[in-house]
């Protein structure tokens, strides 16, 4: 047979071929390596199935996705939303030809299955249903699993399936590939009883996947257009920047001339190997630093902007410069990434920015990153702590003074912080601490874009961008009369809310590993590790001092730890207390039965004696349950608020609590 991807051609007898392949399968299972009896693709897949440890007679597809997870996948993955528009017609064709139409993801997990109702019932007998995984590693040779493993279309007929319970079926699948990355996104599959086998079934799914890939290609072209817009906007605002913009597959869409002159881009229009930098990283070559910044559209990544920065940079006139940029940002949580995206957008808008957040969240890091990414990056970045300047010196510090204004004043006068920041950025930290009389002067600077030095008469024009930060509630301060409303609204044109560390899901391990690596290098000790159970405790701790407190924690444990593994005995007392609080079993909780009205889930805290007596959760399921219960407690039992914070659906909380707790009954509700 010329086509290696189909099981049999139109001239073959399905019944004869079914019997022949069944014998070949029996020979293989009994240890006879008769390669010539089946197609090479089938034989290779059988061998992989053996290596995966799949049982040839008892292998069964496991249920791995809940309905919530299927729905989430359908709504967040582009390839499925594109496929969805084709499904009504595909379903009609499947029913007419005696097949089921199936779509799976890159792991072989079934996201959609439909077709003839009686055929669906038969399929359920072999656990062929939405949410199950038909990866080769679970059920051996099958059209979807094998096409995903090989990256090519595949028809699998009767006994070619590795697991005997599937020998009465025939499947034809074709993988869907991302045109940008060439990675397999999933597959389209037609499944029926063995006697409906036909080579055109494989042709049909190949045609379907080609249609899907053409639509993905059209979307990629739109992404390229957006990336080109990013490039044009960046170079228009700062022609001196040396940048390249890449798509998701690291294909160069547009780059400044030096990228080509210096040989940083190869003949395939890709970065040379030594410059393969990924999202949020930096590389170095020949005295140049390369910073990579991810670009997004409607929350989805579309590519990267890479900045080439000369390592040897002349100091600006004032000597004020930044130490940090967006590449120094550590955190992958959606809460943190969304703020980074906002900050990127604000960088070149040249309007005042107000950064709000608790102490220790990294407000100055954001301020410096905005400046470093803006067209003012070559000019000064001047930081002023408004709470640390003595009241009587504040005006002269900010606005400067003329000669003779004060006894002992410098000859010729002195430029204030605003003048020192000329052409660049002034960062006013703790702006809420600024005295009221100074606020009036500051407001005038913002409105008129000029200053008058203390003791002077002539206004001096300014070209300075203002970024302010505060850890207090400025709105409340306005109501209390300690901060001017007109100044607040003048400052709050662009605003960033930096989330506290306790709201940054999954970022504690990333940050801690970074700080531990850095600390161990500083104090010259071997690298330290921390086990999953103790890391879980740290993730539940509130971190009132935020990232600053976590950094200090890294120093403390690095100095205190005796071995190469950090244990809870190395933790400070306040974090040890957190361990005792979360260390209780699910049976220690009671709740109110929920009805259809919004009402909190009441979780009763254990007594201190209970806290000390129970064991720490040892399995991932227990840890997952404890995390849900902790977040519910923090949300005062409000399931909606807890689900939002955890990033899962409300029904997922009900299901997991119902599965893991005893003597509890939860009914669906609006909470």
UniProtKB/TrEMBL annotation:
SUPFAM superfamilies assigned: Homeodomain-like (SSF46689), P-loop containing nucleoside triphosphate hydrolases (SSF52540)
Signal peptide: none
Ranges of residues in domain Sigma-54 factor interaction: 329-559
Any one biological process term the GO annotation gives: regulation of DNA-templated transcription
Keyword Cell inner membrane (UniProt): no
Domain of life: Bacteria
Cross-referenced InterPro entries: AAA+_ATPase, AAA_lid_NorR, GAF-like_dom_sf, Homeodomain-like_sf, HTH_Fis, P-loop_NTPase, Sigma_54_int, Sigma_54_int_dom_ATP-bd_1
UniProt entry keywords in alphabetical sequence: ATP-binding, DNA-binding, Nucleotide-binding, Transcription, Transcription regulation
PROSITE patterns: SIGMA54_INTERACT_1 (PS00675), SIGMA54_INTERACT_2 (PS00676), SIGMA54_INTERACT_3 (PS00688), SIGMA54_INTERACT_4 (PS50045)
One MF annotation (Gene Ontology) recorded for this entry: sequence-specific DNA binding
Pfam families: AAA_lid_14 (PF25601), HTH_8 (PF02954), Sigma54_activat (PF00158)
UniProt-recorded name of the protein: GAF modulated sigma54 specific FIS family transcriptional regulator
């Amino acid at each position: 047979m010329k086509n290696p991807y189909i099981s049999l051609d139109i001239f073959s007898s399905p019944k004869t071929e079914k019997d022949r392949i069944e014998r070949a399968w029996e020979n293989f299972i009994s240890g006879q390596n008769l390669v010539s009896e089946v197609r090479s693709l089938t034989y290779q897949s059988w061998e992989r199935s053996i290596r995966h440890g799949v049982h040839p007679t008892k292998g069964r597809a496991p249920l791995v996705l809940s309905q919530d997870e299927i729905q989430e996948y359908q709504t967040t993955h582009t390839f499925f939303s594109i496929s969805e528009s084709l499904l009504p017609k595909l379903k009609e064709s499947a029913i007419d030809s005696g097949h089921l139409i199936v779509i799976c993801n890159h792991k072989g997990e079934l996201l959609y299955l439909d077709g003839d109702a009686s055929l669906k019932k038969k399929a359920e007998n072999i656990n062929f249903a939405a949410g199950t995984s038909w990866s080769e590693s679970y059920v051996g040779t099958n059209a979807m699993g094998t096409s995903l493993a090989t990256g090519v279309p595949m028809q699998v007929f009767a006994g070619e399936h590795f697991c005997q319970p599937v020998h009465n079926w025939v499947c034809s699948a074709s993988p869907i590939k991302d045109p940008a990355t060439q990675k397999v996104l999933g597959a389209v599959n037609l499944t029926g009883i063995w006697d409906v086998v036909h080579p055109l079934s494989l042709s049909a799914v190949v045609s379907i996947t080609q249609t899907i890939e053409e639509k993905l290609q059209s979307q990629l072209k739109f992404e390229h257009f957006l990336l080109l817009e990013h490039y044009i906007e960046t170079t228009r605002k700062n022609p001196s920047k040396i940048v390249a913009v890449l798509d998701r597959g690291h294909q160069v869409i547009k780059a400044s001339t030096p990228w080509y002159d210096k040989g940083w881009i190869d003949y395939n229009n890709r970065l040379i190997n030594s410059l393969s930098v990924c999202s949020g990283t930096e590389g170095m070559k020949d005295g140049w630093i390369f910073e990579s910044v991810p670009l997004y559209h409607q929350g989805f990544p579309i590519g990267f902007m890479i900045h080439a920065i000369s390592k040897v940079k002349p100091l600006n006139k004032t000597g004020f410069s930044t130490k940090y940029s967006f590449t120094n940002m550590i955190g992958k949580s959606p809460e943190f990434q969304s703020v980074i995206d906002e900050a990127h957008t604000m960088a070149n808008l040249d309007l005042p920015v107000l950064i709000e957040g608790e102490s220790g969240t990294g407000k100055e890091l954001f301020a410096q990153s905005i400046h470093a990414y803006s067209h003012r990056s070559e000019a000064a970045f001047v930081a002023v702590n408004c709470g640390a300047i003595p009241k009587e010196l504040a005006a002269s510090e900010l606005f400067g003074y003329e000669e003779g204004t004060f006894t002992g004043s410098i000859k010729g006068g002195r430029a204030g912080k605003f003048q020192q920041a000329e052409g660049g950025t002034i960062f006013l930290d703790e702006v809420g601490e600024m005295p009221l009389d100074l606020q009036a002067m500051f407001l005038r600077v913002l409105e008129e874009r000029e200053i008058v030095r203390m003791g002077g008469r002539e206004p001096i024009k300014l070209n300075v961008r203002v970024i302010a930060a505060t850890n207090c509630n400025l709105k409340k301060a306005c109501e209390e009369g300690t901060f001017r409303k007109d100044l607040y609204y003048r400052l709050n044109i662009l605003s960033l809310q930096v989330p506290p560390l306790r709201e940054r899901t999954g970022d504690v391990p990333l940050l801690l590993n970074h700080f531990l690596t850095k600390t161990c290098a500083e104090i010259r000790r071997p690298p330290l590790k921390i086990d999953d159970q103790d890391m879980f405790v740290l993730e539940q701790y509130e971190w009132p001092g935020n990232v600053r407190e976590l950094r200090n924690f890294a120093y403390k444990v690095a100095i205190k730890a005796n071995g190469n593994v950090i244990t809870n005995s190395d933790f400070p007392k306040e974090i040890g207390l957190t361990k005792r609080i979360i260390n209780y079993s699910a049976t220690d909780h009671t709740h109110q039965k929920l009805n259809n009205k919004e009402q909190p889930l009441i979780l009763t805290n254990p007594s201190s004696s209970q806290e000390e007596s129970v064991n720490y959760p040892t399995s991932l399921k227990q840890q997952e349950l404890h995390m849900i219960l902790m977040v519910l407690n923090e949300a005062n039992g409000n399931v909606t608020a807890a689900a939002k914070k955890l990033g899962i659906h409300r029904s997922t909380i009900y299901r997991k609590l119902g599965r893991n707790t005893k003597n509890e009954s939860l009914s669906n509700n609006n909470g």
